Structure formats: structure tokens, C-alpha cells
Amino acid sequence: MPAKSFVSFHLGDQLFGIDICQVREINRHLHLTPVPLAPNYVRGLVNLRGQIITVLDLKERLGLGQTEMSDISHNIILKTDSEQGISKPDKDSSSIISEKVGFWVDAIGNVISLDTTEIDPPPANMGEVDGKYLFGVVKLENTLMSILSIAKILNGKVDE
Amino acid sequence: MSSLSDDSLLQEFVAESREHLSSIEPDLLILEREGANTDQEIINRVFRAIHSIKGASGFFGLIALKNLSHTMESVLMLIRDGQLVPTAKVMDPLLEGVDKLNQMLEDIHSSETVTYQDEIRRLEVILGKPPKADDLEATDISSNPQGLSALDKTTIVNATQQGQRLYYLNVSVDKDLTAKQRTPLDLLEQLISVGLLIDSSFDIAMFPDLSNCLNASLSLSILCATVLEKDLLAMAVDLPETQVQEVTMEEVLDNKKPTWAMPETEKQELSKPIVQERESAHQETKTTPVNHSAEAVETIRVRVDLLNKLMDLAGEMVLSRNQLLRAFAQKENPHNGLETISQKINLVTSELQEHIMQTRMQPVGSIFGKFPRVVRDITKQLGKEIELRTSGEDVELDKSILESLSDPLTHLIRNCCDHAIESPEERKEVGKPSSGTIFLNAFHEGGQINISISDDGRGIDHARIAKKVLENGLLSESDLKKMSPQEVVNLIFLPGLSTAEKISDISGRGVGMDVVKTNIEKVGGHISIKTQLGKGTTILLRLPLTLAIIPSLIVGACGHRFAVPQVNLVELVCVKAREIPTRIEKVGNASVLRLRGKLLPLVRLADVLGLERVFFDSESGQYHPDRRIEIANPRFQENTLVSDSETLNQRTHYSSDYNIMVLKVGANQYGLIVDELFDMEEIVVKPLSSFIQHCKCYAGATIMGDGQVAMILDAGGILSYTKLSFSESQAEENYKKQLNTLDQTTIEQQAMLLFKNAPDETFGLPLSSVLRIEKFNRNEIEQLGGREFLTYQNRSIELLRLERYLPVKSSLNEQKEWFLILPKSANGRMGIIASQIVDSIDMQLDLDTTVVTNPGVIGSSVVQGHLTVFINPQTLLEKHYESRGLVHAS
Question: Of B216, B279, B372, B440, whose CB count within 10 A is highest?
């Protein structure tokens, strides 16, 4: 029974999840430096204890409109592959996080542990989110949680 | 066949072998010079080094390396035993061998594919062996652990005749090396110190699967000869006695191998994966992935005492943090003792930073070391006699600067040999010793590293340079006439100038000094040249200690802040709102600024970045949208959208002034209009995220002093992004020039900065030689040993008073605000004091050189009705250095 934990968060009214092993920390109140000429989904750069992190607006990236700065919006900083101890990129969901990025999200939810066998393959689209950005879907008690495929989200950027 | 690829031991071997080779080279050169009289110790040193390489390469199964080093060793053995006199003829193949070994080590995984048969053949000619086809095969048996070469056999026979005993050692990689944090080379060196290493090989027969052999208990079998008893030998090389076995000469020659018994349990226990314990010792908690591609991770050697110091400091830091946490946790009186804690953290942090910086420092000796060889090869080729003397090898520089210094320095040394030093006959004719000398010297000064290359050669003839410049059409004759000999000499840094009469292999292809200059300036350095015809030349490189930090100007546009590297910045121009109609005009679609008779294309940073333009109203303290569309002539726009709200007063208000940064990109210059100018800041460049890499306008990002991130602007990127065309403005400029030539005879204008020291004496100096001007308060001056300093942005700037070096009046002291003119040549380390900045004007330089004739004075002229003395800041700086007893010229 391979169990995994996921950090859940809200974008609009949808619930999403990221493998907790890929998350370095969750924080807020960082001073964002916007980058003119950058793609819309690049929210800006922040200084995280001497390291520059590119903050992406995940909602914008998934085509769900812009994330508003609010009291409950948070920044999920991801671990890079080397921080996760991955030397070779894996084929599956994880990895190919080659640089320091963070996701700006509407609200943070709980950490949800579940059995990986409970994850169903994603439908062609999940609400307004293109299925290619999803790794799978999990049925929770009264809602669905979409598990994101970080690799697709981070590496599809060239065609934008 | 390197089955042990990607192994940390192999990397260690490469690093150590390289070190050996770099130490061999100078020793070989000494051997060549001293011939038979060479100190035996030097020969032994070379021998031991090559021997270590040979032994270890056998260990790794690197046949090419082993064969070549083996043959080199044979030659060295003859030299050591006095059977061969080390002459240039002997040394050439040996040095070639060293080059080849270096080449193999360069990419160790393909070292087997490097051809080395030529080198071996040349070496064998020295050995007196006729090159035979099967010779190579004879040396190839090294891959076969059972075989011994003919040479090894004679060694064995010799050794036993001298009463030495023969031993087989069985070394387990896991247990004897890794567990004890030793490298194979450590072991071999220990062995060589007590005896003679004859052969070494892997016991690969024990392992059918080579790819996995490091995880198994791999063992190395070594044959050696020594006078020591068995137990002493075991102690000397730190091995259990059971792993040392004495054998007779006959047994060895019969290829009888000892059998080793090893308990099975022990084997299993030891078969844990190899980790490089040395690395884990300095707390590399982040597991960097092993890089499987060809490029190896760059490493640097750091002194252990430095690492210890860092560990201590990190510990201190943790302690302070704990204290801080405790202080905050105290409910009542939480600020109790905070002051001492913050003081401690402050101290520890700065010390920590300083030491971490030190880990990147490497001695310049590491690149100086290769020059004797360069000089030797060139002198042989040219038939000259040149001696290279070096000093200051232990001066330390940042690794990255050091690396980028290697090529320019090689170029300069080659130039010296080729052009500067005359042939022996020529030298005798002018009464110099037939052997020329090149001094290569490194020293600290004023927080910078100086490297000087001086020679006692023929010097640089400025007339010849002038002739060449004319021939190549780089400058006009009238330009040249105005230049001092020193300025003409500086023209050798112009691209496309080579003065060598004949082009040689070594130098003189016209790519040269300009490339050197660009490379030095790229790392934030400065190059200057001083020459005396017939006596010699000194080239001085001034380099910053570290590269990671670049001085930049912070500017603002529409509420965003950006950093502009100072290297791109030529000057800052402020165009007052009322001057805009007269100074900025439109040519085609582009706006241009009239600047000292030239036209400078202009762009707005806000437009480039697609920002909504705002202007800051200092009265209300708010940003308002800026509705000026045209840069030029905002007041008289026809399609004006603004007349309803904007008053004339507002348009001439000072917030409507343009701040223009004149940026240079190669030979082109353009003006970038920004909203605000902040301070100079020294910034650390961080690479761009891949999400914004396509934005060519940025060179990187940085974290500023207040902890916020700012983008670094790329002057070249902005230029290509805006597709600013220089042809239009240039055509216009050419046209204007033509008009000028019709109107009056061509007069070259030069920008001059006019300033005062004493209130009634005016001085001038070329604006092009000024880095920047700072304002300071009199009470900020600090005195130290009769010298005066000003601290600005954590740097000490030494103050230079004109009255000390020129017969002029001293300035009055009661004035509070002063100015400091920082000449470019001093690189921000020294500044000239001025009581008042009068003006910067364009004028034709028509100097009278008879009225004031002191060194440091170019001449005088009447400007705006006042007699003005024009000074040469470079000469004054040199006088200043000399007065401090620091003379670096040869």
C-alpha cells in the first residue's frame, strides 16, 4: 500500500494537490518584483533568503485567470530536482524542476495522505483545466482533488 | 576501457595527476638548464611524480596513460642514474610527453583514444631502442596483471642484488583506502617513500562483473621492492601484516602470484557503497547528483584550516541564533541582551562572509607556473635568449578571475618574447647582456591585485605605431598630431593594429592587444602600458580581488527599479525641461539628443519595457500618468492630448527633466531615458530564470541592499530589442560634419571638465578620463599616516591634493562641501580633490605648453577668460604612487 502525502490548495473553487516531496516551503508576504516583458503567468521574482525565486501565477498558467493577492493567498516554493535528490529526470509525474520556482495560489488546504492506487487517470479536462497539466484525480469525501503534473506545467512554457 | 567511470576515486586521480604534471614541468626546465649539475632531489622529484601517475593509471586500467608515463619514467631513470645528460634534445620529447599526458587527463574517459605512439617513439630513440613494432605490445602487458615489462624485470634484478626484498601487497579499496580516507595515490606515495614500486594491478579476475566492482571488495595488487622487514613495511604503508607477502625474485619472474585469504564475512561487511568521506566531512548536506555527462563538476582545493574556521563560525552563528530565539521567547523584558546578540551576529556574519570569499581564492602561482615553458619554447623557436623571473606567486585571486587571466597573460608574455626582446646580436650591439629578461610580478595594492610584466627589450616606438595607425586608417593624421607619445603608445590597444614587421607563428596577426584589453576589462580590470624606447616596457594589469560583485547604477522607471552595470555606462546627462526643444530633435522616427556636437539616439526605458509611463509629482508625492508621447519637443506637439490639464508651468517643471544614461554597446552609444536615478550599488549577479530568459533586455537579476530583487538591464539587449538604427542619425551626423568642414577647418572638439582647487585657479582635465564625481563633506575625511582617505560605499578612496604635486595654491579649508574627481585609471581607489566644479565644456585643445611645464601638466589655455591649467591625471597618480615608495617599473 504505497501511501503518499499531498499538499492541497485552492485555485478558485477547485482543489488541487502537489506531492509533498516536491514542496520546499509555503510562505507569504514576500516582496514581489514584477518583471516587465515576462509572460503573464510570471508574477515576479522574490528574494528567499538570498536565493531568487521565480513566482508563477498558477491560476494564470492553467488558464483560470489571475490570482488576486489576498490575506489567504500563499506562495508554494518547490524543491528543485537536486534538492529532492533526483539525479536523473523521472518519466512519471515528478521532477524536471530545474530551477527555483514558486506557485502563487489562492488558498492553502490540508496535507492529504492517500494511497497511490486511489489516484485515477485525469479526464480530458477538469473544469477549465486542460487534462495535460494533470497527473491524476482523487475522489475525496465531498470533493475531487486534481493532482498536478509539475513537469508539464513548468516545461510547456516554450509554446506560450 | 575505463570500467570505473564516474568514480570519485578517478576524479581524485585526475586532479592529483594534474598537480603532479604541473609540478613536473618547471622541474624539467630546471633539468634542462642545469644539465648534469642538477640537484639530485629535483630529478627524484620528477621521477616520483611520473611514477605515481604510472602506478595509479595502472590501477585504473588506463593503458594509454600508463604506457606513456612508463616510457617517460624509463628515460628519467637513465637521467637519474647519470647515464643520460638532460639536454634540450632529451627534454623536448619529455615535455611533449607531459603535454600528451595532460591531454589525456583533460578527458579521462576518452584518454584511451589519444594517440601517443609518436611521443613513445621519440622517447625510445633517446632510450637507444630502435623503434620496433612489437615494442608497444611489450609495454601493453600492463593491462595484464601477470605480465612484467622488461624494464620492470631489470629493476627487480637490480633491487634484489642490492639486498632489497620483494613483497606483494594486497590492498582492499574499501577497507584500506576508502575507510581510512586515503586515495590510491596516497598509498603509492607512502610506498615510494620507503621503497620501489615495480608493478601494480587490479585483481579483476575476482570479479566477473566490472561495472559493479567498486561495490564489491575490490583489491589492488602491488609488487614492490624495499629494504624493510615485512612488519615494518606493513606499518609504513598502513596495511595489516596479513596483506603483505614476501616473495622471491624467481617467483616474481615466474609470474607466481600469491593467494590471499579473506574471510567471507569481512568481505560482506565491507561492501558498503563508497562515499567520498572527505566531502561529507565539510557538511555537504545537499546531495549534489553525480553528473553523468562528460563535464565534471568543477572543484576547488580549500585549505583545511580555512574549512575548520568556517565550521567554527557556522557553529557560532547557530549559538547566536539560539540566544536570539531565547531572548525573544522571554515574556517579560524581551529586549534584554538583544544588543550583545545582534553585535555578535554582526561580527560572525561579516567574518563568515570574508572566509567564504577566501575559499574561492587561488594563488596566481598556479598560472605563473606555465610561463617558463611558454618562454622556453618560444626562445628556442626564435633563437633568442630570454630569462623569465617571477615573483609574488602566492598572491591570491578569485578562481574565476584567475582562469580568465590565463590567456591574456600568455599573450602578453608571447608578445614580450617575440617583439620586445631583441635577438642576442642586436642586444650586444646596444650594450645589453645577450640574454633578455622578463619580470612577471604580482602584488597587492590598495585592495586590488596588480600584475606587472616588464622586459628590458627595445621598448615601443611611438612613431612606428603612429605610422601603422595611419596606414590602417584607424585615425587621421591630425588626430595623431594632438596626441602625446604616451597616448600614441596606448593606441596599440586599438583593434586591428599589429606593429610586427613580419607575421610570425607567435604573434603579430593583428588580433592582440585589443583582445587582451577586452578580456582584462571584462573581469573588471584595467591595463596600462609604460615604455621607454631602447630600455624596455612595463605592462601593468590591475585586477579586482573578486569577480562576483559588479558596481552598478540603480535607476527607476515607472516605479520599478533596475540595475545598470557601470561598464556599460558612459555618462549621465540631464536635459532640463526648458532645454528639451533645443537639444532633442527628431531624425526620421527616432529622437536624438545633441551632445557635444554629436547626435545620440534616444529611447525611453518605460517604452522599451512596455510600462505605463508615469511621472512623479514631488509636490503631491504621487505618480501621475505621463502623457508626453514624443521624446522630442513635448511642448509643441501637434497631436497633443494634454492641453486641457497640463499647464505650461508643469511642462517646464523640473520633474519633466530628462535623465539620460549614455550607454555604450561596442562602438555604438545611445541614450536611455529613465525616470529616477538612485545610488551606485555593488551588486551580485544571479542568472535569469528560464521563464524570462527570452527577454533580451535583461542580463540577470540581483538582490539589492534592501533585500528586494531588481533586474539587471542589458545595454546590448535593449539596443537590439528597440531595433534602434544608427544609420539615420549617423547619416545626419556626417551631413552636419560636412557642413562644418565647409564652414570652418575641421576642429576636433574635446570635452573638458573644468574645476577649481584654490578659488582663483582653474584646472581642466579630459572628461573622458573621469570615472565619476562625488560630493563629500570635509569632516568625512579620515587621516592615516599623513594620507587622507574617504570612505564611500565601504571602500576607501585615497585623496590626492593637487598642491602636493603641482606648484599651485592650496585650497581654502573652511569650505564644507567638497568634490572628488575619480579618474578612470585609478579605478575608484583614488580621487583628486576639487573645491568647485566649474563646468564641462567642449573645446578645441589648443594648448600652450610653455607657460606651465610641470610634469603632470599637459599645457594651459585661456578658457572663458581664465587661464586654465590642463592636467594629466595618470601622471599625477604615478607621482603619488612613487611618493609612497611604490615603484613598479623595471
Answer: B440
